[in-house]
Design a protein that fits this description.
The complex is a heterodimer of chains A (148) and B (475). Chain A contains 5 helices and 5 strands; from the N terminus they run E-H-E-H-E-H-E-H-E-H. Chain A is of the alpha/beta class and 148 residues long. In chain A, helix 1 crosses helix 5. Helix content of chain B is 55%, strand content 18%. Chain B has 8 helices and 12 strands.
Amino acid sequence: MDNEPILLVEDNPDDEALTLRALKKNNIKNEVIVAHDGAEALGYLFGTGMYAGRDTQVMPQVILLDLKLPKVDGFEVLRQMRSDPRTKLVPVVILSSSNEELDRTAGYDLGANSYIRKPVEFNDFIEAVRQLGLYWLILNRTAPTKRP
Amino acid sequence: MVRRPSNSIASKLTRMNLLVSAIALVLACSGFVAYDFVSFRLNIVRDLSMQAQLAGSNSVAALVFDDADSADRTVAAFGVSRNVLASRIYDAKGQPFATYLRDRDEKIPAMPQIAAGKDEAYRFEGGHVILAHTILFEGKRSGYILVEQDMERIVERMENYGEIAAVMLGFSLLVVVFVSRFAGRAIANPVVELADAARRVSKDKDYSVRVNSTNEEGELALLVDTFNQMLEQIQQSHQELEKRVQERTAQLVAANKELESFSYSVSHDLRAPLRSIDGFSLALEEDLGDHLTAQAKNYIQRVRAATQRMGMLIDDLLNLSRVTRAEMRKERVDLSGMAKAVASELVRADGERNVEWVIPDGMEAYGDSRLLRIVLDNLLGNAWKYTSKHDHARIEFSQERHNGGYAFYVKDDGAGFDPAYTQRLFGAFQRLHGITEFSGTGIGLATVHRIIHRHGGEVWADGAVEKGATFYFTI
């Protein structure tokens, strides 16, 4: 089991708190980095801005990406990620309120690995996070990112 | 080209003119011929009279001196004329004195009575004219002369006239036919042009067509001019209408786009706070669990239930609006197959239930398959839900004859509804049962109603409390 951090890109503080709570409830021990908008997320991934100097060899094990973000939205983050060899292979799970077909299509089109709709009922949310954690953190093998 | 009718103006004119000309010619000819006949006959008579008088005066001496032979010779002079059949001289007492007969077996006809005070009398008999004249000598009546002549000359004359008349009639009728046809065409052509233009306008929807106006005055020119004016009007109002339609369409498209972005933001922005409410309520409950009274827990439960219900309502509303906006793609849909699929999904979700499904094969409709699926999901799902309190249920999806066509129906023997509230059934968010009896938001039937209406059909329902319900729809 890899122990890279999880990157949570979420602008809504309530959703952020609830997601962290859900992760905790599921005993997920990975470090969780929270980016509050698209620019922060890209800064973390490419080691710029407030994350300048970060070791960009270490990529998150999975990115939980919200779509509606200020400054740079989720689609743009995804687009930039997929066009850079350093971040091209990092798994991205889109977590969004929207179930609109357009959003889903665009997400997959831009290279997301998974699309999950945030449920209103919190228990469902916890369950969703549990399954997410089970799959992406334990079962799934990421592409190797460490250069030999 | 518009087909010329067989009863065309040209042929009507021709027939009319032929009739009129024929009548006129026949009348004129008859008039002339009749007059000629009469006057020629009179001529014959006058001629004959003159001959009789001549012969009479030539026979005076023979009468006076009782010389029958001389009289015979005088009368025989009539042999010169081929047309005289017989002649006889009578003496003063009316006794035959001298006779001439052209043919041996002829008889002398009876003498016409000469009226008192007159010298002559004649009559027509059997195609001959018979004339009698008094023979006078020194003012005294000394005898009579009778001459009979045939009318061969007049017959010949009439026959000639007949031939001439026939030729003239034939010739002039021919002229009439040609002239009428020509005139008819001249009148009919503009009319046919008009008809042609009208046909082009209505068939090709080409409103720029105009008919060439003629230079002459008259009814046809008037018709052509007003026709052109009318076409001008039609073209103008057609253009106006098109413009208006374009504007309205643009407005509609804009309104639809607004609705779409509205739905989109509803989908995102309304649900996020709901998530917070529910999540933190649960967090409260979990973290403070031991310190909370049963009532506090109950309150938190209610908060969460209300939140979740609102989430469902938003979802249902979103679906309803999507159903209204979605583009319809019509095709043949196998309703029997679709219903069976919905039924098996319901059974799979809750296999414990004892439900008898009656869905005959072969039911088809012409409509949007996705939207019709939603209709069946709702109607069959409702039937499933409202029979859930019974041990055994029967759900039927079939069709029956209605108003000359077919109506489909979903019939169950479940909780039914009070028929007094039938008109509320299809309103949005309207329910006839409480949430604790049966779950639901009250959008399902409103969605069905909207979908069926978009297909141009009708939906209605029958029911009774605890006796089941039947929902009908036509497409």
